């Protein structure tokens, strides 16, 4: 019986939190993709028996928002994403209360059915699209047990005889063991690009098909948008490999999902690299002094109206934060996304939800700001007394954002603007 004067909310707050009823559903939705046997995480959280020994560590990780990895500042910019794995405040409170009350199991009948996860020898997009239309493989590389990082850059021909449009791509290491040595994989598209219209003049080049890293496995393009493959095209791979104490031989694989023959999406999407640094002689410049926090900026003007599909910061061990801002032609400024606690171990790709992806007019300047922490306060810093410049090695630094950009015609932009124009408020009828 609820005592007089007690609210229902107060009564519910006294309800015991159990693993089977309250915590397991959260783990299924936000944690088990990595925390299961055979996956990348160091422990499985599939069952109560597997989870209970880690209860206190889990409490600390979720309370400090270290896990699940989602490094975006939730107080500024766009907050709606297709792939948001972060925990809500209520979910964090539930997990913390479960641990603080002794981490009880609860009634086994409350346990949700086990979630089925795709095996690593299958394609994650197969459930949505079936098997890939093309599977392209890089050459194998044998990474020794010990040694410096390696950048392996083989070439693979794309077996097509006519132009084809891509609706999704997925990259994976060839074997589970390969995940240990691959930090990231780039699949650059090399092909001759005919300059036939204003869009191509503004955006010459095919761009990148995809970058794979822990936290980013695939790209699915929005309705009526895709990437174009032309006959004679190649994939120029870049596999960043590092030694892990055992010799491993592996390759990268690219699954390509095509639109049906003859079906051409209206919009072409390009994966662009936006440097958060000044440039000199065509290259990015970084000059990070020892024991300092450095701030650098880059600017890129949109020569056509465009929709930005995602935001993926890329830095190395000293990376601290990165912001993406739009400076509109009328001078207004909009913070689109701000990753305030970047972590090199997780190259998270923040994919905007369909109704949240920013659509920007021609002449908008994208302002990218990066911060690097080259001090002893940075736990990932190998040596705060070293000068750091731009370079491929993990001990060097980078500062850029990968952004899929879908360019729009002026007519399309005006139509979008009209559809999203704020409507005047309708005055309420006076009560007679």
Account of the 3D structure:
Strand 20 and strand 21 form a beta hairpin. Strands 1, 5, 8, 9, 12, 13, 18, 19, 22, 23 and 26 form an 11-stranded mixed sheet that branches. Strands 3, 4, 6, 7 and 10 form a 5-stranded antiparallel sheet that branches. A 4-stranded antiparallel sheet has the order 17-24-20-21, with no helix packed on it. Helix 2 packs across helix 5. The protein has 3 domains: 103 residues, no CATH class; 142 residues, Sandwich (Jelly Rolls); 154 residues, Jelly Rolls (Sandwich), CATH 2.60.120.230. The protein is built from 9 helices and 26 strands. With 432 residues, the chain is of the alpha+beta class. The N terminus and C terminus are likely disordered.
End-to-end Cα distance, whole Å, is 46 Å
Main β-sheet description? 11 strands, mixed
Q: How much β-strand is present in the residues?
A: 25-35%
CATH first level of the largest domain? Mainly Beta
* Structural shape: globular
Number of strands: 26
**Averaged pLDDT:** 88
* Distinct helical segment count: 9
Class by SSE composition: alpha+beta
Q: Roughly how much helix do the residues carry, as a percent range?
A: 10-25%
What is the fold named in CATH at topology level of the largest domain?
Jelly Rolls
Count of the separate structural domains: 3
Query: Which regions have little confidence, pLDDT < 50, spanning 5+ residues?
Result: 1-12, 425-432
